[in-house]
Amino acid sequence: MEEKKQEEQLDPQEEQQQQEEQLQADAQTQEEETVKETAAPKDEKEKLAQELAEMKDKYLRIYAEFDNFRKRNAREKLQLIQTAAADTIKSLLPVLDDFDRAVKAGQELDDGIMLIYEKMKKALVQKGLEEMESTGQAFDPDFHEALTKVPAPTEELKGKVIDTVEKGYILNEKIIRYAKVVVGQ
């Protein structure tokens, strides 16, 4: 019995020691769970922050792409508007040439016809039509179409336009008809 008493006496001490060990183990387990819980939200927060950054980047790229599309579309519309009348103006150029030839030939033109000629010329200029200056200029294949080459009367006229057979025209900074010229050799 004495042994039992000793065992009973040891039991409370062992029991207390076991309880302390159990408390330490529980504390350690609880600490590990807390670390896991705080680690998981950090990983999740980082993941969400990364997704947010990716979405912002996508948004900015799409916005920039749309803005470029809008600007390109506006530019194309403006070009279309500027050159929309090009076909009509091209069809009027032979009439303008006939008027110019009549004036150049010194024919007596009625004041009414001269008024119509001036009005037509003014209206076309307002729409963006410009005459090319060719005679006396250096020959430029970007603006001139050489019909023939003739010997230059002077050394200065070599490689230059001696005569303009048909005027060239520019509509809103775009060539709609090249000048047909005679070039000196």
Automatic annotation (TrEMBL):
Gene3D superfamilies: 3.90.20.20, Head domain of nucleotide exchange factor GrpE. Participates actively in the response to hyperosmotic and heat shock by preventing the aggregation of stress-denatured proteins, in association with DnaK and GrpE. It is the nucleotide exchange factor for DnaK and may function as a thermosensor. Unfolded proteins bind initially to DnaJ; upon interaction with the DnaJ-bound protein, DnaK hydrolyzes its bound ATP, resulting in the formation of a stable complex. GrpE releases ADP from DnaK; ATP binding to DnaK triggers the release of the substrate protein, thus completing the reaction cycle. Residues 33-46 have a biased composition (Basic and acidic residues). SUPFAM superfamilies: Coiled-coil domain of nucleotide exchange factor GrpE (SSF58014), Head domain of nucleotide exchange factor GrpE (SSF51064). Homodimer. It comes from Saprospira grandis DSM 2844. The gene is grpE. Residues 1-46 are annotated as: Disordered. Residues 19-28 have a biased composition (Low complexity). Belongs to the GrpE family. This is Protein GrpE.
